[in-house]
Amino acid sequence: MQPIAATNDFVVKFANVNGSGSASANELFARSILRMGVPVCSRNIFPSNIQGLPTWYEVRVSGEGWLGRRGGVDLMVAMNPQTWDKDLAEIESGGYLLYDSTKPLTSQKLRADVNLLGVPLTQLSNTLEGTIPRERQLLKNIIYLGAVVQLLSMHLETVQDLITKQFKGKDKLIKLNFAAMKLGYDYAAKTLAGKCRLKVEKADLVGDRIFIQGNDAAGLGAVYGGATVCAWYPITPSTSLAEAFTAHCKTFRVDPVTKKNNFAIVQAEDEIAAIGIVIGANWNGARAFTATSGPGISLMQEFFGLAYFAEVPAVVFDIQRGGPSTGMPTRTQQSDILLAAYASHGDTKHVLLLPRDPHEAFEFAAEAFDLAERLQTPVFVMLDLDIGMNDWLCEPLSWDDSRKYDRGKVMSAEELEAGTFFGRYTDVDGDAIPYRTLPATHPSKGAYFTRGSSRNAMAKYSEEGADYVYNMQRLLRKFETAKGLVPAPLRRDAKEKTRYGAIFYGSTSPALDEALSHLEAQGVHLNTLRLRAFPFGEEVVDFVNAHDQVFVIEQNRDAQMQKLMVNECAIDPARFISILHYDGTPITARFIAAAIGERMNVSKPKAKEAAE
Amino acid sequence: MQPIAATNDFVVKFANVNGSGSASANELFARSILRMGVPVCSRNIFPSNIQGLPTWYEVRVSGEGWLGRRGGVDLMVAMNPQTWDKDLAEIESGGYLLYDSTKPLTSQKLRADVNLLGVPLTQLSNTLEGTIPRERQLLKNIIYLGAVVQLLSMHLETVQDLITKQFKGKDKLIKLNFAAMKLGYDYAAKTLAGKCRLKVEKADLVGDRIFIQGNDAAGLGAVYGGATVCAWYPITPSTSLAEAFTAHCKTFRVDPVTKKNNFAIVQAEDEIAAIGIVIGANWNGARAFTATSGPGISLMQEFFGLAYFAEVPAVVFDIQRGGPSTGMPTRTQQSDILLAAYASHGDTKHVLLLPRDPHEAFEFAAEAFDLAERLQTPVFVMLDLDIGMNDWLCEPLSWDDSRKYDRGKVMSAEELEAGTFFGRYTDVDGDAIPYRTLPATHPSKGAYFTRGSSRNAMAKYSEEGADYVYNMQRLLRKFETAKGLVPAPLRRDAKEKTRYGAIFYGSTSPALDEALSHLEAQGVHLNTLRLRAFPFGEEVVDFVNAHDQVFVIEQNRDAQMQKLMVNECAIDPARFISILHYDGTPITARFIAAAIGERMNVSKPKAKEAAE
Amino acid sequence: MTYIAKPKLHHPGLKPNKLGFTHRDYEGSISTLCAGCGHDSISAALIQAAYELDIEPYRVAKMSGIGCSSKTPDYFLGNAHGFNAVHGRMPSVLTGANLANRDLIYLGVSGDGDSASIGLGQFAHCVRRGVNMVYICENNGVYGLTKGQFSATADKGSKSKAGGTNSDNPIDLVSLALVLGATFVARSFSGDKKQLVPLLKAAIAHQGSAVIDVISPCVQFNNHAGSTKSFDFVREHNEAVNRIDFMVDRAPITADYAPGTVQVVQQHDGTYLKLSKLHAEYDPTDRARAMAYLQERHNAGEVVTGLLYVEEQANDLHANLNTVAAPLNRLGERTLCPGSAKLAALNDAYR
Amino acid sequence: MTYIAKPKLHHPGLKPNKLGFTHRDYEGSISTLCAGCGHDSISAALIQAAYELDIEPYRVAKMSGIGCSSKTPDYFLGNAHGFNAVHGRMPSVLTGANLANRDLIYLGVSGDGDSASIGLGQFAHCVRRGVNMVYICENNGVYGLTKGQFSATADKGSKSKAGGTNSDNPIDLVSLALVLGATFVARSFSGDKKQLVPLLKAAIAHQGSAVIDVISPCVQFNNHAGSTKSFDFVREHNEAVNRIDFMVDRAPITADYAPGTVQVVQQHDGTYLKLSKLHAEYDPTDRARAMAYLQERHNAGEVVTGLLYVEEQANDLHANLNTVAAPLNRLGERTLCPGSAKLAALNDAYR
Ligand SMILES: Cc1ncc(C[n+]2csc(CCOP(=O)(O)OP(=O)(O)O)c2C)c(N)n1
Ligand SMILES: Cc1ncc(C[n+]2csc(CCOP(=O)(O)OP(=O)(O)O)c2C)c(N)n1
Ligand code: SF4
Ligand code: SF4
Ligand SMILES: [Mg+2]
Ligand SMILES: [Mg+2]
Question: What is the distance in A from the centroid of ligand 1 to the CA of A524?
Answer without folding.
Answer: 60
